Amino acid sequence: MLKNLKVLDLGMNRLTGPIPPEIGNLTSVMKINLQSNGLSGSVPPELGNLRNLVELLLDRNRLQGTVPGGNNSSSVSNMQEIYASHGNATGFCRASQLRNADFSYNFFVGRIPQCLNYIPRTSFQGNCFQDKESKQRPSMQCGASPVASPAKSHPPAYPKHRQAENGHKHHEASKPAWLLALEIVTGTVAGLLLLIAAFTAAKKCNAQSSDIIPWKKKENRNEYKDHQIIYMDPEMLKDVVRFSRQELEVACEDFSNIIGSSPDSLVYKGTMKGGPEIAVISLCVKQEYWTGYLELYFQREVADLARLNHENTGKLLGYCRETNPFSRMLVFEYASNGTLYEHLHYGEGCQLSWSRRMKIILGIARGLRYLHTELEPPFTISELSSKAVYLTEDFFPKLVDFESWKTVLARSEKNSGSISNGDTLCGFQDSLSERHLDVQGNLFAFGVLLLEIISGRPPYCKDRGCLVDWAKEYVDMPEIMSYLVDPELRHFRYDDLKVVCEVVSLCIQSDSAKRPSMKELCPMLESRIDISVSADLKECPLAWAELALSS
């Protein structure tokens, strides 16, 4: 029975001990989720035997040692040769179908296997790797021995120190009485001045308005500032619903119903009492690392998401901000049919007929047109992909920016100073506007997403490489354009395919200045893609059955 297992999901189960190497015998398994447990020891290289493994989640454990994966042949010089010399590969370099893996927040050491370079560096952060491209643990957490103290390194220094100390005491004892009296008076005056200064500062702080929030930094990055004072705008979140942690805890069944995770956040599903189903994103940052900048970024992000109001964008219902226990959460309306990525690459292909895919494409295009051209300032999706497209029961697409946390944390790393006056605040607002400048990046990602929808292939595959590189030879050639279509589809409309390929060609241009805006691209799709029932029935008699299923 276990040999036919497709998904092994044991995440968040408080498992301990090493990973059993026998898991490597589950040859049919496609996904393994062991994240957020207490697993220890090294990763068994037998996991590399799982030739059908697509996704592996080992983050947030206590795993040690190296990540198994390499090539025994010293003559291999590049990635293509590594995959070609499959017989020499070891560990995860043998897992040819592995597309997504997460090893973050463990205690792995050594170097990241070269064959896993296609995986984002964020999937390796929080370890002890010799890797400068991703954020690793401090050396103290990785078992580095502290620097020897002078007492241990130089034994003779101790008696000299005692001798000097005794000499110092003797010198103090021989001080004249007038000098001691002067020191006492000077110390008393200095203490009184310090006390007056502290009292004045406290009184001035209490007199400030409630929109000033002090944040004490326990980890001082600048080495000369112990506090940050951030001026908050009390009007920023006045129209956004604020939920209590207790409300969300009840709705999400004690936060046990986890439907998604990343190194920076957890996503819970819940149901409000007498209200809609919700998706709650909780930020995974401890209070001692929460700075004034992060707080201001969080509130600015909530206000930014709250202004979105379109049928093809996820609706923000509110937020949660509490101190005890420390909580920073976003509450979205839940789209119950999962992500487009899951349907394209893990679901049954027959569920996504050609007509249904065209409707999804039009919905995404309309959502992006709204975000890019109908909002001021414009809004862009941090990581636009099929994972950012959530589907309702009737396969209606909604764009949700769940990855905005990564952007928030990345920006806060660049801004660790304090904000205490109008000029600095203006500079801070300028840095916030960086989010609204990546419209061209969204356009390129939209072209890749269209290719993914019509072909059924992921944006990157270890065996086939980048989807864009593969598709370029077909996009502009009508006679072979049909080779782009997902082979699982029983029929498609050539006219629809042609306009989709035209839009893709415009979006993936290397010169970003030549890419048209969504205000131009969306009408191209709307005017030339026929999603009427009659178009389906004309195209293929099988559409009768698909129509019956979709209704």
CATH topology of the domain at 342-380 and 438-551: Transferase(Phosphotransferase), domain 1
Question: So how many helices?
Answer: 16
CATH class call of the domain at 342-380 and 438-551: Mainly Alpha
Note the main sheet.
5 strands, antiparallel
End-to-end distance: 36 Å
Low-confidence stretches: 72-86, 144-173, 208-229, 416-432
Query: Helical proportion?
Result: 25-40%
Q: Under the CATH scheme, which architecture of the domain at 342-380 and 438-551 would be assigned?
A: Orthogonal Bundle
Strand order of the largest sheet: 13-14-15-17-16
CATH superfamily of the domain at 342-380 and 438-551: Transferase(Phosphotransferase) domain 1
Taking all Cα atoms into account, the compactness measure Rg is 29 Å
User: What does the overall shape look like?
Assistant: globular
Structural class: alpha/beta
Q: How large a portion of the residues is in β-strands, by DSSP E?
A: 15-25%
How much is the average pLDDT?
78
Q: If you had to describe this structure to a student in words, what would you say it looks like?
A:
The protein has 551 residues and is an alpha/beta fold. Among the domains are: 2-137, Leucine-rich repeat, LRR (right-handed beta-alpha superhelix) (Alpha-Beta Horseshoe); 342-380 and 438-551, Transferase(Phosphotransferase) domain 1 (Transferase(Phosphotransferase), domain 1). Helices cover 35% and strands 15% of the residues. The chain has 16 helices and 21 strands. The protein has helices at 79-84, 150-153, 157-173, 177-207, 245-251, 292-306, 340-345, 354-373, 404-414, 422-432, 439-455, 467-475, 494-507, 518-528, 533-539, 543-550, and strands at 7-9, 16-17, 31-33, 38-42, 55-57, 62-65, 69-71, 89-91, 100-102, 107-108, 212-216, 227-231, 258-261, 265-271, 277-283, 316-322, 327-333, 389-391, 397-399, 460-461, 465-466. The strands form seven sheets. It has a five-stranded antiparallel sheet, sandwiched between helices. Strands 1-3-5-9 form a four-stranded parallel sheet, with no helix packed on it. The chain has a four-stranded parallel sheet with strand order 2-4-6-10, with no helix packed on it. A hairpin with a 3-residue loop joins strand 20 and strand 21. Helix 13 packs antiparallel against helix 14 (518-528). It is globular, with a radius of gyration of 29 Å. The protein starts with 6 loop residues before the first strand and ends with a helix. Residues 72-86, 144-173, 208-229 and 416-432 have low confidence and may be disordered.
